[in-house]
Amino acid sequence: MTTAPLIEARDLTKTYVTGEPYTAVDGIDFEVRPGEAFGVLGANGAGKSSTMRMIACVSPVTSGTLRILGMDAARDGERIRARLGVVPQDDTLDTELTVRENLLIYGRYFGIPWKALRERCDQLLAFSRLEDKGSQAVSTLSGGMRRRLTIARALINQPEILLLDEPTTGLDPQARHLLWERLFQLKEDGVTLLLTTHYMDEAEQLCDRLVVMDAGKIVAEGSPADLIERHSTREVLELRFAAHERQLMIDKCAEVTERVEVLPDRLVLYTGDGESTLAAVHALGVRPAGAVVRRSTLEDVFLTLTGRSLIE
Q: Where would I find the ABC transporter domain in this sequence (predicted)?
């Protein structure tokens, strides 16, 4: 297998000029290697979807370079699209057709012969655990089933790269975990995955490497474990106090750890050893109404890098 990147972006920029000019992607560099699951994390408006649309060759690059499968996205869009699978953020299935008909019609866009296409449909229905739903109208499917069908449809042309934009948004926990299983199997089969998500647990489960975007720029890059090590602590201690006590306890808690984050409902202490820090808090005479020690997560990293302010 070649070790050359399948996707390589250098100073990639996307500016929209309708109305007031707006730069959604601001000179980012990254590369995606063969066979890996690569994540793009960011809040709403961070530039994730704009980046994905350029990689899918449906939105032109404003400036910089973007090479996909050894080709230039600006010149070879049609050839690149033939080798990609795309799972959009919103399902675009034909709800009046059956599950199997959605796959068959989409497969014909790629010129797949009927015999091979029917065999491919059978394989994909089994892969997505929809083999007993083939003759049902899409309108009768649950949200999780529709999402699995959308991924199956994106695989009809046996793509080398699968692009997934917020693949599990709106799904219940059971449907999300089943989808994670399917995506993990694809990676094991050698398909390169590129996904955007704002679910931190999803990124930790699925991604070998990822970038965090904020205001159109990449603010961090690495594996989930590397990012946690660099930008957070091994553990986090969360303390809850009555509303009238919280402000009084901030200075005391600051004595036992280097970083204390003040939230409306709790204090968050970043520490290497949560139990030892809790014991030190108690030694100062502080008695929280509730205390939780947990490991540091990618969500802690994300909020440290991008802040907690809501972005619309």
A: 7-240
